[in-house]
User: What shape does this take?
Amino acid sequence: MSPPADLDRLSHADLKSLVLKLLEEVAELRRTVAAQRDEVARLKGGSGRPNIKPSGMDKATDPKPPTAGGAPRPKGSTRSKLSIHEERTVAVATPPRGSRFKGYTSFIVQDLVIRPHVVDFRCERWQRPDGKMLTAPLPAGINGHFGPELRRFALAHYHQGQVTMPRLLAVLRALGIIISKRQLVRLLIGAQDGFLNEARDVLRAGLASAAWITVDDTGARHKATTGFCTQVGNAHFAWFGTTDSKSRTNFLELLRAGHGDYVVNAEALAYMRRRGLPGPVIARLAEHSDRSFPDHAGWTAHLEKLAISALKVNPDSVLATDGALWGSIKQHGLLPNTVIVSDDAGQFNVGQHGLCWVHAERLVHKLDTFTDEQRVAQRRIRGLIWRFYRALKAYRQHPTALRKAALQARFERIFTHKTGFVALDRLLARLHANKGELLMVLDRPEIPLHTNGSENDVRCQVTKRKVSGGTRSDTGRDCRDAFLGLSKTCAKLGIAFWDYLGSRLAAPNHPDIPYLPQIIRHRCATA
Assistant: This one.
Protein backbone atom coordinates (compact mmCIF):
# COMPACT_ATOMS: atom_id res chain seq x y z
CA MET A 1 0.00 0.00 0.00
CA SER A 2 1.53 3.30 -1.09
CA PRO A 3 1.40 6.22 1.42
CA PRO A 4 -0.82 9.24 0.62
CA ALA A 5 0.83 12.39 -0.75
CA ASP A 6 -0.18 14.59 2.20
CA LEU A 7 -1.62 13.20 5.43
CA ASP A 8 -2.56 16.68 6.68
CA ARG A 9 -5.08 17.18 3.87
CA LEU A 10 -6.96 13.93 4.49
CA SER A 11 -10.45 14.19 5.93
CA HIS A 12 -11.55 12.36 9.07
CA ALA A 13 -13.29 9.67 6.97
CA ASP A 14 -10.21 9.21 4.78
CA LEU A 15 -7.98 8.91 7.84
CA LYS A 16 -10.32 6.34 9.37
CA SER A 17 -10.33 4.33 6.14
CA LEU A 18 -6.54 4.51 5.98
CA VAL A 19 -6.18 3.31 9.57
CA LEU A 20 -8.55 0.39 8.96
CA LYS A 21 -6.59 -0.69 5.90
CA LEU A 22 -3.34 -0.47 7.84
CA LEU A 23 -4.82 -2.52 10.68
CA GLU A 24 -5.94 -5.18 8.23
CA GLU A 25 -2.46 -5.30 6.71
CA VAL A 26 -0.88 -5.54 10.17
CA ALA A 27 -3.25 -8.38 11.07
CA GLU A 28 -2.33 -10.19 7.86
CA LEU A 29 1.37 -9.70 8.58
CA ARG A 30 0.88 -11.06 12.10
CA ARG A 31 -0.82 -14.15 10.71
CA THR A 32 2.04 -14.64 8.26
CA VAL A 33 4.67 -14.24 10.99
CA ALA A 34 2.75 -16.62 13.28
CA ALA A 35 2.52 -19.20 10.49
CA GLN A 36 6.24 -18.91 9.81
CA ARG A 37 7.04 -19.16 13.52
CA ASP A 38 4.83 -22.24 13.73
CA GLU A 39 6.59 -23.80 10.74
CA VAL A 40 10.05 -23.12 12.21
CA ALA A 41 9.00 -24.62 15.56
CA ARG A 42 7.57 -27.67 13.81
CA LEU A 43 10.74 -28.20 11.77
CA LYS A 44 12.76 -28.05 15.00
CA GLY A 45 10.54 -30.71 16.50
CA GLY A 46 8.81 -28.41 18.95
CA SER A 47 5.17 -27.49 19.32
CA GLY A 48 3.62 -24.78 17.19
CA ARG A 49 1.12 -22.16 18.15
CA PRO A 50 -1.95 -23.43 20.02
CA ASN A 51 -5.11 -24.17 18.10
CA ILE A 52 -7.83 -21.54 18.29
CA LYS A 53 -10.84 -22.69 20.26
CA PRO A 54 -13.52 -23.95 17.85
CA SER A 55 -16.69 -21.95 17.36
CA GLY A 56 -18.99 -24.75 18.48
CA MET A 57 -21.25 -24.41 15.44
CA ASP A 58 -21.80 -28.13 14.99
CA LYS A 59 -22.92 -28.87 18.56
CA ALA A 60 -24.88 -25.64 18.85
CA THR A 61 -26.98 -26.52 15.80
CA ASP A 62 -27.88 -30.03 16.96
CA PRO A 63 -31.62 -30.46 17.66
CA LYS A 64 -32.46 -30.01 21.32
CA PRO A 65 -33.95 -32.96 23.22
CA PRO A 66 -37.73 -32.77 23.71
CA THR A 67 -37.44 -32.47 27.49
CA ALA A 68 -34.57 -31.08 29.52
CA GLY A 69 -35.35 -33.14 32.62
CA GLY A 70 -37.12 -36.43 33.08
CA ALA A 71 -36.38 -39.63 34.92
CA PRO A 72 -32.85 -40.99 34.60
CA ARG A 73 -32.40 -43.86 32.20
CA PRO A 74 -32.29 -47.18 34.08
CA LYS A 75 -28.92 -48.91 34.07
CA GLY A 76 -28.51 -52.50 32.97
CA SER A 77 -27.51 -55.22 35.39
CA THR A 78 -23.74 -55.49 35.78
CA ARG A 79 -24.00 -59.12 36.84
CA SER A 80 -25.72 -60.13 33.60
CA LYS A 81 -22.73 -58.79 31.62
CA LEU A 82 -20.09 -60.70 33.59
CA SER A 83 -18.85 -64.27 33.49
CA ILE A 84 -18.26 -65.66 36.99
CA HIS A 85 -14.85 -67.35 37.16
CA GLU A 86 -14.77 -68.25 40.85
CA GLU A 87 -17.16 -68.50 43.81
CA ARG A 88 -15.96 -68.05 47.37
CA THR A 89 -17.93 -68.53 50.54
CA VAL A 90 -17.25 -66.00 53.29
CA ALA A 91 -18.27 -67.22 56.72
CA VAL A 92 -19.10 -65.27 59.82
CA ALA A 93 -16.35 -65.92 62.36
CA THR A 94 -18.60 -66.48 65.40
CA PRO A 95 -22.35 -65.85 64.94
CA PRO A 96 -24.11 -64.76 68.14
CA ARG A 97 -25.82 -67.48 70.14
CA GLY A 98 -29.37 -68.03 69.01
CA SER A 99 -28.76 -66.79 65.45
CA ARG A 100 -30.37 -68.66 62.52
CA PHE A 101 -28.67 -69.25 59.15
CA LYS A 102 -30.49 -67.39 56.34
CA GLY A 103 -28.45 -68.39 53.29
CA TYR A 104 -26.09 -66.11 51.37
CA THR A 105 -25.98 -62.64 49.84
CA SER A 106 -24.03 -62.16 46.62
CA PHE A 107 -21.45 -59.42 46.13
CA ILE A 108 -19.67 -59.24 42.76
CA VAL A 109 -16.03 -58.13 42.69
CA GLN A 110 -14.10 -57.62 39.44
CA ASP A 111 -10.34 -58.14 39.61
CA LEU A 112 -7.37 -58.84 37.38
CA VAL A 113 -4.90 -61.69 37.59
CA ILE A 114 -1.59 -60.44 36.21
CA ARG A 115 1.40 -62.66 36.89
CA PRO A 116 4.17 -64.38 34.94
CA HIS A 117 3.25 -67.78 33.56
CA VAL A 118 6.22 -69.83 32.37
CA VAL A 119 5.54 -72.99 30.36
CA ASP A 120 8.14 -75.64 29.59
CA PHE A 121 7.01 -77.25 26.34
CA ARG A 122 8.39 -80.80 26.18
CA CYS A 123 8.20 -81.39 22.45
CA GLU A 124 8.32 -85.04 21.39
CA ARG A 125 11.12 -86.07 19.09
CA TRP A 126 10.97 -89.05 16.76
CA GLN A 127 13.61 -90.46 14.48
CA ARG A 128 12.19 -91.29 11.10
CA PRO A 129 13.27 -94.39 9.17
CA ASP A 130 15.52 -92.22 6.99
CA GLY A 131 17.40 -91.09 10.08
CA LYS A 132 16.06 -87.52 10.21
CA MET A 133 14.56 -86.17 13.45
CA LEU A 134 10.87 -85.18 13.69
CA THR A 135 10.02 -82.69 16.45
CA ALA A 136 6.47 -81.80 17.53
CA PRO A 137 5.70 -78.15 16.63
CA LEU A 138 4.98 -75.51 19.24
CA PRO A 139 1.38 -74.25 19.64
CA ALA A 140 0.25 -71.30 17.52
CA GLY A 141 0.88 -67.77 18.76
CA ILE A 142 4.37 -68.24 20.19
CA ASN A 143 6.99 -65.76 19.03
CA GLY A 144 10.48 -66.75 20.10
CA HIS A 145 10.30 -67.43 23.82
CA PHE A 146 7.17 -65.33 24.44
CA GLY A 147 3.56 -66.44 24.36
CA PRO A 148 0.49 -64.81 22.81
CA GLU A 149 -0.85 -63.27 26.02
CA LEU A 150 2.41 -61.42 26.64
CA ARG A 151 2.46 -60.25 23.02
CA ARG A 152 -1.15 -59.09 23.31
CA PHE A 153 -0.36 -57.21 26.53
CA ALA A 154 2.63 -55.46 24.91
CA LEU A 155 0.81 -54.50 21.69
CA ALA A 156 -2.31 -53.26 23.46
CA HIS A 157 -0.38 -51.08 25.90
CA TYR A 158 2.06 -49.72 23.33
CA HIS A 159 -0.45 -48.84 20.60
CA GLN A 160 -3.83 -48.42 22.25
CA GLY A 161 -2.55 -47.33 25.65
CA GLN A 162 0.12 -45.05 24.12
CA VAL A 163 2.75 -46.31 26.61
CA THR A 164 6.35 -45.62 25.61
CA MET A 165 8.63 -48.56 24.95
CA PRO A 166 10.97 -47.87 27.94
CA ARG A 167 8.01 -47.66 30.33
CA LEU A 168 6.45 -50.80 28.90
CA LEU A 169 9.78 -52.57 29.35
CA ALA A 170 9.91 -51.43 32.97
CA VAL A 171 6.35 -52.68 33.60
CA LEU A 172 7.07 -56.11 32.13
CA ARG A 173 10.24 -56.46 34.16
CA ALA A 174 8.42 -55.35 37.31
CA LEU A 175 5.90 -58.13 36.68
CA GLY A 176 8.74 -60.65 36.63
CA ILE A 177 9.21 -61.05 32.86
CA ILE A 178 12.85 -61.47 31.85
CA ILE A 179 13.03 -59.58 28.58
CA SER A 180 15.55 -57.27 26.92
CA LYS A 181 14.89 -54.04 25.09
CA ARG A 182 15.75 -55.66 21.75
CA GLN A 183 13.35 -58.56 22.40
CA LEU A 184 10.53 -56.13 23.23
CA VAL A 185 11.15 -54.15 20.04
CA ARG A 186 10.93 -57.39 18.08
CA LEU A 187 7.61 -58.21 19.74
CA LEU A 188 6.27 -54.78 18.76
CA ILE A 189 7.42 -54.51 15.16
CA GLY A 190 8.84 -57.87 14.10
CA ALA A 191 6.92 -60.39 11.96
CA GLN A 192 3.75 -58.29 11.88
CA ASP A 193 2.95 -58.90 8.21
CA GLY A 194 -0.50 -60.24 9.07
CA PHE A 195 -1.50 -57.00 10.79
CA LEU A 196 0.08 -54.85 8.05
CA ASN A 197 -1.81 -56.73 5.35
CA GLU A 198 -5.09 -56.47 7.24
CA ALA A 199 -4.61 -52.71 7.70
CA ARG A 200 -3.98 -52.37 3.96
CA ASP A 201 -7.07 -54.45 3.17
CA VAL A 202 -9.11 -52.29 5.56
CA LEU A 203 -8.24 -49.29 3.39
CA ARG A 204 -9.06 -51.18 0.20
CA ALA A 205 -12.42 -52.32 1.57
CA GLY A 206 -13.29 -48.81 2.71
CA LEU A 207 -12.32 -47.13 -0.56
CA ALA A 208 -14.15 -49.75 -2.62
CA SER A 209 -17.44 -49.73 -0.69
CA ALA A 210 -17.82 -46.45 1.23
CA ALA A 211 -20.20 -43.77 -0.05
CA TRP A 212 -17.96 -41.11 1.51
CA ILE A 213 -14.67 -40.68 3.31
CA THR A 214 -13.15 -37.83 5.28
CA VAL A 215 -9.44 -37.03 5.19
CA ASP A 216 -6.96 -35.03 7.26
CA ASP A 217 -3.24 -34.93 7.97
CA THR A 218 -0.84 -33.97 10.73
CA GLY A 219 2.89 -33.70 11.26
CA ALA A 220 4.95 -36.83 11.91
CA ARG A 221 8.61 -37.47 12.69
CA HIS A 222 10.45 -40.28 10.94
CA LYS A 223 14.19 -40.87 10.86
CA ALA A 224 14.73 -37.46 12.52
CA THR A 225 12.93 -35.75 9.63
CA THR A 226 9.58 -33.99 9.60
CA GLY A 227 6.97 -35.83 7.56
CA PHE A 228 3.20 -36.01 7.36
CA CYS A 229 0.66 -38.59 8.47
CA THR A 230 -2.50 -38.74 6.34
CA GLN A 231 -5.76 -40.11 7.76
CA VAL A 232 -8.48 -41.68 5.61
CA GLY A 233 -11.69 -43.02 7.09
CA ASN A 234 -15.40 -42.84 7.74
CA ALA A 235 -17.83 -44.14 10.36
CA HIS A 236 -16.65 -47.73 9.89
CA PHE A 237 -12.88 -47.63 9.41
CA ALA A 238 -9.73 -45.56 9.87
CA TRP A 239 -6.36 -45.81 8.15
CA PHE A 240 -3.09 -43.90 8.55
CA GLY A 241 -0.12 -43.50 6.22
CA THR A 242 3.06 -41.56 7.00
CA THR A 243 5.15 -40.14 4.15
CA ASP A 244 7.61 -37.30 3.62
CA SER A 245 5.20 -35.26 1.47
CA LYS A 246 1.67 -33.87 1.56
CA SER A 247 1.31 -33.15 -2.16
CA ARG A 248 -1.63 -34.22 -4.32
CA THR A 249 0.61 -36.81 -5.97
CA ASN A 250 1.36 -38.26 -2.53
CA PHE A 251 -2.35 -38.36 -1.65
CA LEU A 252 -3.18 -40.17 -4.90
CA GLU A 253 -0.40 -42.67 -4.21
CA LEU A 254 -1.95 -43.39 -0.82
CA LEU A 255 -5.39 -43.81 -2.37
CA ARG A 256 -4.01 -46.67 -4.48
CA ALA A 257 -4.12 -48.66 -1.21
CA GLY A 258 -0.88 -50.56 -1.72
CA HIS A 259 -1.09 -51.02 -5.49
CA GLY A 260 2.04 -49.76 -7.23
CA ASP A 261 0.98 -49.54 -10.87
CA TYR A 262 0.28 -46.55 -13.14
CA VAL A 263 -2.59 -46.82 -15.64
CA VAL A 264 -3.52 -44.63 -18.61
CA ASN A 265 -7.22 -45.36 -19.12
CA ALA A 266 -10.31 -43.28 -19.83
CA GLU A 267 -10.51 -42.05 -16.22
CA ALA A 268 -6.83 -41.05 -16.29
CA LEU A 269 -7.22 -39.09 -19.52
CA ALA A 270 -10.36 -37.37 -18.21
CA TYR A 271 -8.46 -36.37 -15.06
CA MET A 272 -5.65 -34.87 -17.17
CA ARG A 273 -8.13 -32.84 -19.23
CA ARG A 274 -9.88 -31.50 -16.11
CA ARG A 275 -6.54 -30.42 -14.65
CA GLY A 276 -5.54 -28.58 -17.83
CA LEU A 277 -2.79 -30.83 -19.17
CA PRO A 278 -2.03 -29.63 -22.73
CA GLY A 279 -3.81 -31.52 -25.50
CA PRO A 280 -0.63 -32.61 -27.35
CA VAL A 281 0.73 -34.23 -24.16
CA ILE A 282 -2.57 -36.07 -23.59
CA ALA A 283 -2.52 -37.18 -27.22
CA ARG A 284 0.96 -38.72 -26.84
CA LEU A 285 -0.20 -40.75 -23.84
CA ALA A 286 -3.54 -41.74 -25.42
CA GLU A 287 -2.09 -42.83 -28.75
CA HIS A 288 0.69 -44.98 -27.34
CA SER A 289 0.03 -48.71 -27.14
CA ASP A 290 1.48 -49.04 -23.61
CA ARG A 291 -1.21 -48.18 -21.07
CA SER A 292 -0.23 -49.97 -17.86
CA PHE A 293 3.08 -49.77 -15.98
CA PRO A 294 3.92 -51.95 -12.96
CA ASP A 295 5.94 -49.43 -10.95
CA HIS A 296 7.34 -45.91 -10.78
CA ALA A 297 10.47 -46.82 -12.72
CA GLY A 298 8.43 -48.13 -15.64
CA TRP A 299 6.21 -45.04 -15.66
CA THR A 300 9.19 -42.66 -15.50
CA ALA A 301 10.84 -44.45 -18.40
CA HIS A 302 7.62 -44.11 -20.40
CA LEU A 303 7.48 -40.34 -19.75
CA GLU A 304 11.08 -40.02 -20.87
CA LYS A 305 10.37 -42.09 -23.96
CA LEU A 306 7.54 -39.75 -24.91
CA ALA A 307 9.73 -36.70 -24.12
CA ILE A 308 7.19 -35.50 -21.53
CA SER A 309 9.75 -35.33 -18.71
CA ALA A 310 11.92 -33.04 -20.84
CA LEU A 311 9.19 -30.45 -21.44
CA LYS A 312 9.97 -26.93 -20.27
CA VAL A 313 6.67 -26.80 -18.36
CA ASN A 314 7.50 -28.94 -15.35
CA PRO A 315 3.92 -29.40 -14.08
CA ASP A 316 3.06 -31.34 -17.24
CA SER A 317 4.83 -34.48 -16.05
CA VAL A 318 3.32 -34.06 -12.57
CA LEU A 319 -0.20 -33.78 -13.98
CA ALA A 320 0.43 -36.77 -16.22
CA THR A 321 1.62 -38.76 -13.19
CA ASP A 322 -1.40 -37.70 -11.16
CA GLY A 323 -3.66 -38.79 -13.99
CA ALA A 324 -1.99 -42.20 -14.21
CA LEU A 325 -2.35 -42.61 -10.44
CA TRP A 326 -6.05 -41.72 -10.70
CA GLY A 327 -6.35 -44.27 -13.51
CA SER A 328 -4.79 -46.91 -11.24
CA ILE A 329 -7.25 -46.07 -8.45
CA LYS A 330 -10.19 -46.51 -10.80
CA GLN A 331 -8.68 -49.62 -12.41
CA HIS A 332 -8.72 -51.38 -9.03
CA GLY A 333 -12.34 -50.46 -8.31
CA LEU A 334 -11.54 -47.88 -5.62
CA LEU A 335 -13.61 -44.70 -5.08
CA PRO A 336 -16.37 -45.82 -7.49
CA ASN A 337 -18.83 -43.09 -6.47
CA THR A 338 -17.17 -41.92 -3.28
CA VAL A 339 -17.23 -38.34 -2.03
CA ILE A 340 -14.02 -37.12 -0.39
CA VAL A 341 -14.76 -34.55 2.34
CA SER A 342 -11.83 -32.39 3.44
CA ASP A 343 -10.94 -29.12 5.15
CA ASP A 344 -10.13 -27.41 1.80
CA ALA A 345 -6.45 -28.42 1.76
CA GLY A 346 -5.52 -28.44 -1.93
CA GLN A 347 -3.95 -31.91 -2.01
CA PHE A 348 -7.29 -33.52 -1.11
CA ASN A 349 -9.23 -31.96 -4.00
CA VAL A 350 -9.62 -35.02 -6.22
CA GLY A 351 -12.66 -36.83 -7.58
CA GLN A 352 -16.02 -35.90 -6.07
CA HIS A 353 -14.99 -33.43 -3.40
CA GLY A 354 -16.97 -31.88 -0.55
CA LEU A 355 -15.88 -29.26 1.96
CA CYS A 356 -16.15 -29.10 5.73
CA TRP A 357 -18.60 -26.44 6.92
CA VAL A 358 -16.97 -26.18 10.33
CA HIS A 359 -13.68 -25.12 8.73
CA ALA A 360 -15.51 -22.70 6.44
CA GLU A 361 -17.27 -21.01 9.37
CA ARG A 362 -14.02 -20.97 11.33
CA LEU A 363 -12.56 -18.59 8.74
CA VAL A 364 -15.29 -16.08 9.59
CA HIS A 365 -14.86 -16.78 13.30
CA LYS A 366 -11.09 -16.07 13.16
CA LEU A 367 -11.39 -12.87 11.12
CA ASP A 368 -9.79 -9.84 12.81
CA THR A 369 -12.19 -6.96 13.51
CA PHE A 370 -11.26 -3.39 14.50
CA THR A 371 -14.53 -1.42 14.71
CA ASP A 372 -17.98 -1.95 16.14
CA GLU A 373 -19.42 -2.00 12.61
CA GLN A 374 -17.06 -4.81 11.61
CA ARG A 375 -17.88 -6.83 14.73
CA VAL A 376 -21.61 -6.41 14.10
CA ALA A 377 -21.17 -7.54 10.49
CA GLN A 378 -19.13 -10.55 11.59
CA ARG A 379 -21.73 -11.62 14.19
CA ARG A 380 -24.55 -11.21 11.67
CA ILE A 381 -22.85 -13.33 9.02
CA ARG A 382 -21.93 -16.00 11.57
CA GLY A 383 -25.53 -16.12 12.71
CA LEU A 384 -26.73 -16.55 9.13
CA ILE A 385 -24.20 -19.36 8.56
CA TRP A 386 -25.20 -21.13 11.79
CA ARG A 387 -28.88 -21.07 10.83
CA PHE A 388 -28.05 -22.24 7.31
CA TYR A 389 -25.97 -25.08 8.76
CA ARG A 390 -28.90 -26.12 10.96
CA ALA A 391 -31.09 -26.16 7.84
CA LEU A 392 -28.56 -28.39 6.05
CA LYS A 393 -28.70 -30.83 8.96
CA ALA A 394 -32.47 -30.96 8.68
CA TYR A 395 -32.21 -31.47 4.91
CA ARG A 396 -29.97 -34.51 5.39
CA GLN A 397 -32.74 -36.15 7.40
CA HIS A 398 -35.51 -35.36 4.90
CA PRO A 399 -34.12 -34.31 1.49
CA THR A 400 -36.63 -32.96 -1.04
CA ALA A 401 -36.31 -31.09 -4.33
CA LEU A 402 -38.18 -28.10 -2.88
CA ARG A 403 -35.83 -27.85 0.11
CA LYS A 404 -32.82 -28.21 -2.18
CA ALA A 405 -33.88 -25.26 -4.35
CA ALA A 406 -34.61 -23.14 -1.28
CA LEU A 407 -31.21 -23.88 0.27
CA GLN A 408 -29.40 -23.05 -2.97
CA ALA A 409 -31.14 -19.67 -3.14
CA ARG A 410 -30.43 -19.06 0.55
CA PHE A 411 -26.72 -19.83 0.00
CA GLU A 412 -26.62 -17.21 -2.77
CA ARG A 413 -28.16 -14.56 -0.53
CA ILE A 414 -25.72 -15.19 2.33
CA PHE A 415 -22.47 -15.45 0.39
CA THR A 416 -23.10 -12.66 -2.13
CA HIS A 417 -24.11 -10.23 0.62
CA LYS A 418 -22.04 -7.03 0.85
CA THR A 419 -21.36 -5.99 4.44
CA GLY A 420 -18.98 -3.08 3.79
CA PHE A 421 -16.31 -4.93 5.78
CA VAL A 422 -13.75 -5.49 3.01
CA ALA A 423 -11.98 -8.52 4.50
CA LEU A 424 -15.29 -10.23 5.30
CA ASP A 425 -16.69 -9.54 1.83
CA ARG A 426 -13.58 -11.04 0.26
CA LEU A 427 -13.94 -14.11 2.44
CA LEU A 428 -17.62 -14.50 1.52
CA ALA A 429 -16.69 -14.27 -2.16
CA ARG A 430 -14.06 -16.94 -1.66
CA LEU A 431 -16.56 -19.25 0.05
CA HIS A 432 -19.11 -18.54 -2.68
CA ALA A 433 -16.57 -19.75 -5.24
CA ASN A 434 -16.62 -23.11 -3.40
CA LYS A 435 -20.41 -23.39 -3.71
CA GLY A 436 -20.38 -26.74 -5.50
CA GLU A 437 -18.24 -28.39 -2.82
CA LEU A 438 -19.98 -26.77 0.15
CA LEU A 439 -23.40 -27.80 -1.21
CA MET A 440 -22.34 -31.30 -2.24
CA VAL A 441 -24.65 -32.52 0.53
CA LEU A 442 -27.69 -31.38 -1.47
CA ASP A 443 -26.94 -34.03 -4.09
CA ARG A 444 -25.48 -36.56 -1.64
CA PRO A 445 -27.40 -36.22 1.66
CA GLU A 446 -25.57 -39.21 3.15
CA ILE A 447 -22.22 -37.38 3.39
CA PRO A 448 -21.23 -35.52 6.58
CA LEU A 449 -21.09 -31.74 6.79
CA HIS A 450 -17.74 -31.71 8.55
CA THR A 451 -14.48 -33.60 9.02
CA ASN A 452 -14.77 -33.96 12.80
CA GLY A 453 -14.35 -37.73 12.49
CA SER A 454 -10.96 -37.36 10.83
CA GLU A 455 -9.83 -34.74 13.33
CA ASN A 456 -10.79 -37.05 16.20
CA ASP A 457 -9.05 -40.03 14.60
CA VAL A 458 -5.82 -38.19 13.89
CA ARG A 459 -5.45 -37.16 17.55
CA CYS A 460 -4.06 -40.59 18.40
CA GLN A 461 -1.20 -39.93 15.98
CA VAL A 462 -0.60 -36.53 17.57
CA THR A 463 -0.56 -38.12 21.02
CA LYS A 464 1.82 -40.83 19.86
CA ARG A 465 4.13 -38.18 18.39
CA LYS A 466 4.15 -36.20 21.61
CA VAL A 467 4.64 -39.24 23.85
CA SER A 468 7.07 -41.33 21.83
CA GLY A 469 8.57 -38.86 19.36
CA GLY A 470 9.32 -40.23 15.89
CA THR A 471 10.07 -43.61 14.42
CA ARG A 472 13.54 -44.76 13.38
CA SER A 473 12.83 -47.54 10.89
CA ASP A 474 10.36 -47.96 8.04
CA THR A 475 9.06 -51.10 9.74
CA GLY A 476 8.42 -49.20 12.96
CA ARG A 477 6.62 -46.44 11.07
CA ASP A 478 4.43 -48.91 9.18
CA CYS A 479 3.57 -50.84 12.36
CA ARG A 480 2.67 -47.66 14.22
CA ASP A 481 0.33 -46.55 11.44
CA ALA A 482 -1.18 -50.02 10.99
CA PHE A 483 -1.90 -50.74 14.66
CA LEU A 484 -3.32 -47.27 15.36
CA GLY A 485 -5.57 -47.65 12.33
CA LEU A 486 -6.68 -51.14 13.38
CA SER A 487 -7.36 -49.91 16.91
CA LYS A 488 -9.53 -47.05 15.64
CA THR A 489 -11.31 -49.37 13.21
CA CYS A 490 -12.11 -51.85 15.98
CA ALA A 491 -13.56 -49.03 18.10
CA LYS A 492 -15.80 -47.92 15.23
CA LEU A 493 -16.98 -51.49 14.62
CA GLY A 494 -17.74 -52.07 18.30
CA ILE A 495 -14.94 -54.64 18.71
CA ALA A 496 -12.64 -54.64 21.73
CA PHE A 497 -9.06 -54.22 20.51
CA TRP A 498 -7.98 -56.64 23.23
CA ASP A 499 -10.27 -59.33 21.77
CA TYR A 500 -9.07 -58.54 18.27
CA LEU A 501 -5.43 -59.00 19.26
CA GLY A 502 -6.27 -62.24 21.06
CA SER A 503 -7.97 -63.59 17.95
CA ARG A 504 -5.10 -62.71 15.63
CA LEU A 505 -2.38 -63.91 18.03
CA ALA A 506 -4.16 -67.21 18.79
CA ALA A 507 -4.39 -66.50 22.51
CA PRO A 508 -6.09 -69.25 24.58
CA ASN A 509 -9.88 -68.99 24.83
CA HIS A 510 -9.93 -65.97 22.52
CA PRO A 511 -13.15 -64.87 20.76
CA ASP A 512 -13.23 -65.37 17.01
CA ILE A 513 -13.06 -61.95 15.34
CA PRO A 514 -13.84 -61.97 11.58
CA TYR A 515 -11.48 -60.34 9.10
CA LEU A 516 -12.10 -56.61 9.54
CA PRO A 517 -12.37 -55.79 5.79
CA GLN A 518 -15.29 -58.21 5.52
CA ILE A 519 -17.14 -56.39 8.30
CA ILE A 520 -16.40 -53.00 6.72
CA ARG A 521 -17.79 -54.07 3.34
CA HIS A 522 -20.95 -55.31 5.02
CA ARG A 523 -21.39 -52.18 7.14
CA CYS A 524 -20.81 -49.85 4.17
CA ALA A 525 -23.23 -51.81 2.01
CA THR A 526 -25.99 -51.61 4.62
CA ALA A 527 -25.33 -48.03 5.78
About this structure: The chain is about 50% helix and 10% strand.
